[in-house]
Amino acid sequence: MQKKLISFDEISQLSSKDKAYFRQESYLNSFLTDFPSVSSILNQAKDKKASFTSEQRTLLVDVLKKQYAQRSLTQRAEDSMNALLDENTFTIITAHQPSLLTGPLYYIYKIISVLKLSRHLNNQQNDFTFIPLFITGGEDHDFDEINHAQIFNKRLEWDTKQSGAVGRMEMSGLSELIVELKELLGERSKAINLVNEIQEKLASFTSYASFTIWLTERLFIDTDLLIINMDDKDLKQSFIPILKKELTESFSKPLVNDTQTALAEHNHQSQAFARDINLFMHSDNQRLRIEKNGEQYHLVDSTTHYTESEILQYLNDHPENFSPNVVLRPLYQEHCMPNVAYVGGGGELSYWLERKSQFEAIHLPFPILVRRHSALIIEAKDGQTWQQLGFNIEDIFEEEHILIKSYLTRSSEIDLDLEPLLNRASAVYNELSELSNKVDPTLSKSIQAASVKHTKSLEQLGSRITRALKAKEEVSITKIKKIKAKYFPNNGLQERYTNVFEFISKYGITFISKVEDSFEDFPKEFEVIMLEKDDFPA
């Protein structure tokens, strides 16, 4: 593999907020514990150690063992769980919704990021142990966000009429989708054994969350990754005091609003709308928002109402039916985990930046925020074509029309920039205008009209020359367009569109570990990886 590191500032598809975080702009200091580094994470471990109790550790390990008892428990996973009982062991966390077949590539990159960072921290010192942990966020009910995957530019979509939390959904309709996947990949696909394994096991999964967890474990089977489903009664039981505080005091909204106002002074738009109560309730296969009107709590889009004493009693009896929204979820997660760093994408970190004052209100350490790896994977044949066209790897980020113009200029040895010619023509007419002013000022309008007409004629002739060159170089221009469309679908980044099965199908499941090996330990720049023919022997 060849690799090129490119500054995030040069990637136009990334937001200005994302770039500001990578530059570690000083105005962000008040919204963070610290910027990510080995030393800042180690300092965070000391703070978390002082606040995370042995009872919390025991609860977490019990929940993990309970969940792993329902799936295969490797010795490596068991060792990691037992290590979490030690006061000097901490987690490095990332989280994501249970996207179909893992969704876009960045799902994979997030997990690789926690694996790399955990190993890096463990290799740098001996005082603490760091465990990579993935949270599957199955309580969200935005089905349209997770019901599809893009493979070989085809959209596979899960068709089901179910509603409510996606992680709690049954497997109805997924077997048909896996058949479609199998047909798309073909029998010669290097993913076919994995797809056959999915088909064989599909009926054994009791929920979509359990299927997603199994698939994620299967893709990272030889790693130290732990996976947890936070939709758990025992974990929510421990969070009851904060849930009660949100129900009775609505403490989150004013804190978040003030933070959003402060961030807006630096052109940060609000990421999450804070409500008076940032909780949902699971009810009759639905996830319904809780609102308070006067002295009554009610579930939106239902006829269910509670008094304060009734809803608090229900909370005590059935905490599993209460579900934090995006504003409260980070607090729930960090309350339950001995976590020191959260790894996420630019959008995620933007809404985490709005959370610090909430953490302070409940005396909970705010984790170090680490931007996940971002990458572009260029396949060997396309990389070779790209270089044959005369481009460097980093040129692929240029806009298509600039690339085509650059190629035509280089291949024809003709400078297609007409501006110097137009400037010279304009200078001639300016001289004529000055001369006419000395003889007959009334001629200036005629000279100006002639200048405009002449300029248009030159532009038209230039366009004809460009079209002629494009026709002559049609094959090469088509190659440029195809490569740009392939690696920047809909003018976005590959990692936000393409599914990992596209690469597994061509290169086998070892593709993931190869990418993991090529990534930097601590992401600081955008990584462009160009595959080579001998990277994946037949």
Order of strands, main sheet, comes to: 6-3-2-12-13
Structural class: alpha/beta
Q: What percentage of the residues does DSSP assign to strands (E)?
A: 5-15%
* Total of domains: 3
Oligomeric status of the shown chains? Answer: single chain
Total beta strand runs: 15
Task: Kindly provide the radius of gyration, computed on alpha-carbon positions and rounded to a whole number of angstroms.
Answer: 28 Å
Overall 3D form: globular
End-to-end Cα distance = 16 Å
Low-confidence stretches: none
What does this protein structure show overall?
The structure is a single chain. The chain is α/β, with parallel strands linked by helices. The chain folds into three domains: 2-239 and 338-374, no CATH class; 241-323, no CATH class; 398-489. It is built from 23 helices and 15 strands. It has helices at residues 16-22, 38-51, 54-68, 75-83, 106-124, 143-146, 174-185, 192-201, 208-219, 233-238, 240-249, 252-264, 308-317, 329-336, 346-352, 356-361, 380-388, 400-412, 419-439, 444-472, 474-487, 501-507, 510-518, and strands at 2-6, 89-96, 129-136, 148-151, 154-157, 226-229, 279-283, 286-293, 296-299, 305-306, 322-324, 339-344, 368-371, 375-378, 526-530. It starts with a strand and ends in an 8-residue tail after the last strand.
